[in-house]
Design goal:
two-stranded antiparallel ribbon; Recoverin, domain 1; mainly alpha
Length: about 150
């Protein structure tokens, strides 16, 4: 599967994948339309030889980790949501990723509002870890339940 996907997305037959080719592959792997910046961050993470492109072995490592990540995320729905919004797969959610997540969680927010939410739940790190995200999700669920119960 992964080898065939690599060949499919290596559109220029260079035996490696650039950021644009990787973005299409990530979408096929189930990531929600990662931005070019997020895709570049993923590329940097898996580009073991530092040439700015992903070769087949690096791609296989990426796919393997993504599969394991999805399996772990499937065990807990909040973990799954976290995995969905941690686009660059660095184990935390930044303000741009949070801004994408908030409407899905029932809270429309602009960047400034997303930063305020991040500041509240990120414990001063500027990045939302899984525990902080879990607290945010539970708080929003309670808020929506209370609002519906009025």
């Amino acid at each position: 599967m992964a080898y065939g996907m690599f060949k499919k997305h290596d559109r220029d037959a260079s035996n490696d994948i650039d950021v644009q080719e990787l973005r299409a592959a990530l979408q096929e792997l189930g990531l929600n339309a990662p931005t070019e910046q997020q895709t570049a961050a993923i590329l940097r993470k898996y580009d073991a030889n530092g040439n700015g492109r992903i070769d087949i072995q690096e791609f296989l490592n990426l796919v393997s980790e993504l599969i394991e990540f999805k399996k772990a995320a499937a065990r807990d729905p909040v973990d799954g949501m976290f995995a969905r919004f941690d686009i660059n797969r660095n184990g935390s959610i930044d303000v741009a990723e949070l801004r994408s997540a908030l409407p899905v969680l029932g809270l429309a927010a602009d960047t400034q509002q997303a930063k305020a939410v991040l500041d509240k739940y990120a414990n001063g790190t500027g990045l939302l870890e899984l525990d902080g995200f879990r607290t945010l999700v539970y708080d929003l669920r309670r808020f929506h339940q209370a609002k519906a119960g009025r």
